[in-house]
Amino acid sequence: MPTYMDYMISSLPIRTFDCMVDRSKLKIKSLTVANAGHLPGRTLQRNSAIFDRWAFVYISSGRGYYQAGIGPRQTVEAGSLFCLFPNTVFHYGPDEDGFWDEYYFSIEGDRIREWLTDWFPQPGLVKQIGVEDTFFSKMEMVFKLMEIGVPANQDRAALTLESLLYEMAVRARQPEIGSRSLFIHKLIDGLSDSIYQPLDSAAVAAQHHISIPTLRRMVHDYTGFPLGEFMHRLKMSEAKKLLLNTDKTVKEIAAMLGYADVFYFSRLFKKYVDAAPRTYRNRMG
User: Does pTM top 0.70 for this prediction?
Assistant: First the structure.
């Protein structure tokens, strides 16, 4: 774990992660996470700072300020997201004698232009998106993938970050998200976190205090897939990662993902991936 002390930044241990792979080996050329980090208890302020690449900064606690160029000085508080980008002078940081907990992701690639055009307008404004457990789990996943230092995982880190930033952008455009939408997000996140268990529709419905038909309808409306197919797709996606990044047998992976019958697992894998598990491993590994 790349943890160290820098008392100029914070009195707490900080973590930083850099892209440690040969970029010519990356499959995704339009987006790369150049570096990232977690700065808990940050006290350092930056004035007249200039950056040569884009960075997205999420503040999980604390309070401070942010100003892009000659724009207005804006308040930053827990649940805020703001950007740093080239050709602009920035002033930002925690309030005097204060602190904030910061997660940052510095990125490169042409895909950023698409974000700005289609779903991330006005990058010089602070966006209030709230504090959600799912944000932290995805940010930690980006860190983990970068730390492993494998080209495929660096690509996965970029895609994971893009997914996270998209969800944050949606949240920023809908600050008054209704309770139903929040409920569905938590329901889907809970299903995504349960891929290493057999699907128990009754238990999931009871956990969320809804009926099984309501559970099935919500999942279909949100994902476009029936509940069972949605879970199979999640599990097959995880199976691909396990096949490429572990030495576990197909039978072991099937059991880990809740499939007692390895032949049934293999049939599902071929259905959704268009290749048998061993063929996929040999072809992509």
Answer: no
